[in-house]
Amino acid sequence: MNLFTLRVRKLPLGRAWEALREDDIACASLGINRTNMKLAAFAIAAMFGGFAGSFFATRQGFISPESFTFIESAIILAIVVLGGMGSQIGVVVATLLVIGLPEAFRELADYRMLAFGAGMVVIMLWRPRGLLAHRDPTILLHGGKKPAAGAAK
Asked: What's the pLDDT tens digit per position in 3-21?
């Protein structure tokens, strides 16, 4: 999945998605069909969701609505939000924190969710846009070089 997204970012479709994420109105003024871009994103996400579901069903051998609870869905959403918008590394780091923090407090069974909530609040106060929210553009115009990590903008 990571290799696929790295490759798609360099295609015109990926650049249109990146532009759409940054500024919806500017995309419309550039002539990008926003509806088609959003439908393409939905279709590709549904395709990967279907792949994941088929792999899960094959591995489990049985599927039931009880397999997924609300708290699991909330944790997945929290991982994506805490990771940062457009950052794959941030999602990996957020996964380690969101899953690892409550596991560190496993012996305090009554306080695990309290530790989870406190950790979420601390991360959102410390980094409101996500752990690794900053991401440079995939491609710069006119062969420009990406600025150094610590360079002033």
From this structure: 888 899 889 999 898 888 8
- Widest CA span of the chain, in angstroms? 57
Residue 68 three-state SS: coil
pTM for this entry: 0.66
The model's pLDDT over 67-119, given as tens digits with 9 standing for 90+, comes to 788 888 888 888 888 888 777 888 888 888 888 877 777 777 777 777 777 87
- Any residues with CB less than 8 A from the CB of 92 and at least 6 apart, and which? 83
Is the Cβ–Cβ distance between 90 and 52 less than 8 Å? no
137: Cβ–Cβ under 8 A, 6 or more apart, which residues? 18
Amino acid identity at 67: S
CB 136 within 8 A of CB 87: no
Measured CA to CA, the distance from residue 115 to residue 101 in angstroms comes to: 7
Using CA atoms, how far apart are residues 116 and 152, in angstroms rounded to an integer? Answer: 36
Is-contact 68 57, C-beta < 8 A?
A: no
Residues 6+ apart with CB under 8 A from 73: none
